[in-house]
Amino acid sequence: MRSGPSSRTPEAGSVAWAISPRQLLSVSRPALWINTVGVLVTGLWLSGQLYTLQPAFWLTLLYLTLPYNLLIYGLNDLSDQAEDALSPRKGGWQGARLDTAEGKPLLAWILALNVPFLLALAFLLPGAALLTLLLSAALFAGYSLPPVRFKARPLLDGLSNVAYALPLVLPALLLGRPVPILALLALCAYSVGKHAFDAAQDSESDCKAGLNTTAVWLGVRGTALYALGWFVLAGALLWPLSRLSALALLLVCGGMACRLWTRPSTREAARLYPLSIVTPWIVGGVSGVQLVYLLVRGLY
Predict the structure, then answer these.
(1) For residue 190, how many other CB atoms are within 10 A of its CB?
(2) How far apart are CA 104 and CA 125, in angstroms?
(3) What does the alpha-carbon distance between residue 61 and residue 37 come to, in Å, rounded to a whole number?
(4) Alpha-carbon span 40 to 169, nearest angstrom
(5) 153 vs 157: CA distance, rounded Å
(6) Which residues pair with 92 in a beta bridge?
(7) DSSP assignment string, 154-207
(8) DSSP H stretches of helix in the chain
(9) How far is CA 234 from the centre of its chain?
(10) CA distance linking residue 166 with residue 130, whole number of Å
(11) From its phi and psi, is residue 210 left (phi > 0), alpha (psi between -120 and 50) or beta?
(12) What angle do CA 162, 167, 171 make, to 5 degrees?
């Protein structure tokens, strides 16, 4: 006997959410949450405060953990299933390799975790801060999704990654403080360079999948030089704010770009990738310690 529509509905509903919490966490790449949470906290310190009790800040901080990173990397994994199937580094901490059946459940969870936060923040954040957050989210969505799909457009793929820098200004806009322009521009330059550097390891698999990225277009050596230029610009912008932070960025990020330039191969790019992952911790740690020290001493 055939089942009626009412008997099929619960099963369909359960399938719509059939993805494990562990897989959701894997897709969001917790190792990279520092790029969102750390940027917001640094922005708070740059605004001249060690902490704030404003609910809008803490809700934004919570949003920039699992929900926001699921938006960034979940949409990316959904759009890159062909490329990821050819990439040897996917399927672990560097990114999930999705089954076809997991696509719709993942999209459902992305919407379920992002929409309520954005609606709540629409009531709590000042207009400029909300628009900045929405711009950042839109750039990340546009990076992965057609018809825009910045990822498949050389140069625009990296330039759209300035979205990582935008949360830096949210605390200033929330608290009514001056926007840290130099720090913002430095972080934008760093984000563009880091995207190019990280993409070098995938240039062969991306090329085989028919994806034209900056790394595919320039080749590994050209990409290393391109990334180095952005890292030098980021260091120059940081220099007036903190010579120690600028030197840390130039030594670590510039050093790994030079290394890749002298040994241009996807294997070398993959070997250097773990160092690239920790560069936000290194440079951010150097900057954060200085900021906290100045704030505690009342010098900032």
Answers:
(1) 27
(2) 31
(3) 6
(4) 8
(5) 6
(6) 95
(7) TTHHHHGGGGGTGGGGHHHHHHT----HHHHHHHHHHHHHHHHHHHGGGHHHHH
(8) 5-16, 21-28, 39-46, 55-63, 66-79, 81-86, 103-124, 127-144, 156-159, 170-175, 181-199, 203-208, 214-238, 243-249, 255-262, 266-296
(9) 17
(10) 11
(11) left
(12) 145
Tokens of 236: 């120059």
Each residue's pLDDT expressed in tens, for the chain with a length of 300 residues: 334 444 444 444 555 567 788 888 989 999 899 999 999 999 999 999 999 999 999 999 999 999 999 999 999 888 876 555 555 555 555 555 566 667 788 999 999 999 999 999 999 999 999 999 999 999 999 999 999 999 999 999 999 999 999 999 999 999 999 999 999 999 999 999 999 999 999 999 889 888 899 999 999 999 999 999 999 999 999 999 999 999 999 999 999 999 999 999 999 999 999 999 999 999 999 999 999 999 999 988
Q: What distance in Å separates the CA atoms of residue 27 and residue 97, rounded to the nearest whole number?
A: 9
Contact between 9 and 92 under an 8 Å Cβ cutoff? The reply is no
Residue 153 corresponds to which tokens in the numbers above?
């457009």
HSE-CB at 109 with a 13 A cutoff on CA atoms is: 28
Triad 269, 94, 163: Cα angle to 5°: 85
Structure tokens at 223: 């990409």
